[in-house]
Write a structure and sequence with these properties.
Elements: H1 15-27, H2 32-47, H3 60-63
Helix pairs in contact: 1-2
Amino acid sequence: MAAEKNVSVSFRVTPEFKSLLELAAMREQRSQTNLLERLLFDHCRKQGIAAPVASKLVTREKAGA
């Protein structure tokens, strides 16, 4: 089962970037998010970049504060 996606990321890009992202995702029949994830994970794997071990952080909301 795939990891749950519960983190939102927002950033600004050029119109050219957005157009190319839309076209590339459509060509590969992927969502734009899925395409960016695949590209980033492939790049990091090739460069030997590993994500730190994810730990379950308790936020103030979850802690009831």
